[in-house]
Amino acid sequence: MSDKIMAYDNGSGEFKSGGALSTQYLGLALKSPLVVGASPLTRDTSFVRRLENAGVGAIVMHSLFEEDMPREPMDAFAPPAAHDDFPEHCWTRPPQRGHAGTYLETLAYIKNIVAIPVIASLNCRTPDGWVQLARRLADQGADALELNVFLMAMDPNQTGAEMERQLLETTHRVRDAVTIPLAIKLNPYLSSLPNIVRQLEQIGINGVVLFNRFFQLGPATTIEREMFRTSSPHRADLAMRLDWLAVLSPWTRLSLAITGGVHGSTDVVRAIMAGADVAQMTTSLLENGPDYAQPVLAEIALWLQNHNIGSINELRDVANMATVAKPQETVRSEYRDAIAASAMRFTAEHRY
Length: 352
Prior knowledge:
It contains eleven helices and twelve strands. The protein has 352 residues and is α/β, with parallel strands linked by helices. It has two domains: 23-319, TIM Barrel (Alpha-Beta Barrel); 327-352. The strands form three sheets. Strands 3-4-5-6-7-8-11-12 form an eight-stranded parallel barrel, surrounded by five helices. Helix 4 (127-139) runs parallel beside helix 5 and helix 7 packs parallel to helix 8 (265-274). The chain starts with 22 loop residues before the first strand and ends with a helix.
């Protein structure tokens, strides 16, 4: 393997790419385009160092929900006094076994043990909650903030425009409250995604993440208990995200990330080619463990070498809509071709 693209450092066990995989996201320098998406992985801080050693570019912490904060005393997050004899103890010890520790304690601890960017994830339900908790996360040292906005239309009197205005107002309040980079995780059900992204860019957001996934409310099995059902992201989920990356990336200056459907090296490469700056992975890391990131990144590095590509950044945007002369006509034509191909397969499979 060439000097520029090394897969492993056998001495330390850490992934090394020699800069071939380094990129930028939200204005932050990342050693690779593979980011750990918001998930329970960061609840166990023993996994965090392993993720960094495996080569991930950044970590998105599990979401902090506004409803959870009353259980965490607000004065518990104050930094140690200047005259404290051992201030490091407060910031270097892991949260105690037996309880998760407060979110802010976990954030401070993770920041202390890794060098890669740590992105806090926030999910609130009130305007004041968004602002106050965003400030606390920024003050605690988060390198960036991912706004996990959960808006679901349930009121027939509320219009789509009203919901989108609420989204924009929330984002504007948080942008005014903090100076760290902000990304917002959107859902795919907005009336005009490109228009919303343009308005977010005008507000001063630094990036968008495509897409949020909603838990689906299943039927109640008993009067007392309701069951929630959700399925793991499938590779089929990736197609919609790639399509929207291809639409957004030619004209927006925002950082773009995808989450959902990213399971291996090919998925990461396809995302970059469609215009993503990074690809977030969650399910495969949960299923295979933190070290799974290492072979994924090694495969990407080897693929780059085999194709004589010196940097992952050379791939960005090579398959977005800017490469298509007439995007609307092309999309419609591909849709018609897909329908026709499906009909031909059905006829062939069921012909007697």
